[in-house]
Specification:
347 residues; TIM Barrel; nine-stranded mixed sheet; 11 helices; 27% helix; globular; binds pyridoxal-5'-phosphate; binds iron/sulfur cluster
Length: 347
């Protein structure tokens, strides 16, 4: 039987022709955009869009700039080369990303995995190979389920995946990266929560980009997860014209903490082909994180992360507070005032 969230999903808009008139643009190239990169806006997320160009509309309504992008690399982070088995990315020694789903509640136009989402699914064979790889690499202690969105899988499929991972002794924790609480909160059912809480320690990182994504429904979904004892973090993508503003970002981070979500990372957009119109400068990223740190509770401040091209991994940016000089350490505080700190011991 279809669950409610599956019914909602099945009436998603998947072509620009189906958009309500007030959200249609005059752009003639849009049909070729949706043929290149799948479109999906489910009815819940659609209800949050008021204008074509508002912060929610921009994230999911196709734009012809996607196919006019000069950037032509589909995989600048070299994920494909860091894939020992299909769907598994092993970049850092102790953790892997497992792309267990190719589907999402909506297809974000800025997605770093634009090359995959809505186009691929993990085959049973690839799943078995991935599990075997994790089993035979005993230094892997953290498995991150991503995709696509793992919570777009059926409850049965999720149980199968989570059980297989849980059975591997050296895996100490599981993380799920999902946008469903913000983009399809109906997915967070009682049954799902019962399943998830039987796989502790299980962490969920929720994708939120704008305060308009926090509604009664999305808040209730997050509260239900937190009440089940699931530690929640957030991931936000720094998007030009959507949230590249210190005030918007401050508001979002503080709202998340009120829902017991610890802001984890803000990501600089990866220069993937088709997303350049969302890309901000590194300067903007540094400016925004410096407007957060110190100005609001430390609990509300995530790290601003740059994923290095070529698979070098993520590094935090905006930490240029400190400089060693003759007279000691020169350190700036959050207001930009200079202080000197002297080491008392040399070790
Ligand atoms: C981001 C990422 C991780 C997780 O990094 P953390 O800093 O531990 O959250 C792991 N593997 C890959 C390939 C990643 O891109
Ligand atoms: S929900 Fe995540 S994986 Fe899915 S399209 Fe959006 S950014 Fe990409």
């Amino acid at each position: 039987m279809m669950q409610d969230w599956q019914k909602i999903l099945s009436s998603s808009i998947v072509s620009i022709n189906e958009l309500p008139t007030h959200l249609k643009s005059q752009d003639n190239d849009l049909l070729s955009v949706e043929q290149t990169y799948p479109m999906r806006i489910n009815p819940y997320f659609l209800s949050l869009i008021h204008h074509l160009d508002d912060p929610i509309g921009k994230q999911v309504i196709p734009n012809s700039l996607e196919i006019k992008d000069l950037q032509t690399d589909n995989d600048p982070l070299d994920e494909t080369n860091q894939s020992p088995t299909p769907g598994l990315i092993h970049r850092y020694p102790d953790r892997v990303v497992f792309l267990v789903s190719g589907e999402c509640a909506v297809y974000c136009r800025f997605c770093m995995r634009k090359r995959l989402v809505g186009k691929t699914a993990l085959s049973d064979h690839a799943f078995e190979k991935g599990i075997h790889y994790i089993q035979t690499h005993s230094h892997i202690r953290d498995v991150i389920l991503s995709g696509g969105d793992p919570l777009l899988l059926s409850d049965n499929k999720l149980v199968k995946i989570l059980s297989a991972i849980k059975h591997i002794n050296h895996v100490e924790m599981i993380r799920i990266h999902t946008r469903t609480p913000s983009a399809l909160p109906q997915r967070i059912t009682r049954e799902l929560i019962t399943i998830l809480k039987s796989f502790h320690p299980l962490f969920i990182n929720i994708h939120f980009n704008h305060p308009n994504e926090i509604t009664d429904l999305s808040a209730a979904a997050c509260i239900a997860l937190a009440d089940a004892g699931i530690p929640l973090g957030s991931q936000t993508v720094l998007l030009k014209g959507v949230n590249d503003d210190p005030q918007v970002m401050t508001h979002l981070m503080c709202q998340l903490v009120k829902l017991r979500i610890k802001p984890y990372y803000i990501h600089i957009v990866d220069p993937v082909s088709g997303v350049s119109h969302f890309l901000t400068s590194l300067e903007t990223g540094i400016h925004i994180i410096n407007k957060l740190r110190g100005h609001i509770s430390g609990l509300c401040v995530p790290h601003m992360m740059l994923d290095l091209p070529g698979g070098g991994g993520k590094v935090p940016i905006g930490l240029a507070y400190i400089d060693k000089q003759q007279g000691g350490w020169q350190i700036k505080n959050y207001q930009g005032k200079n202080y000197t700190y002297q080491d008392i011991y040399n070790d």
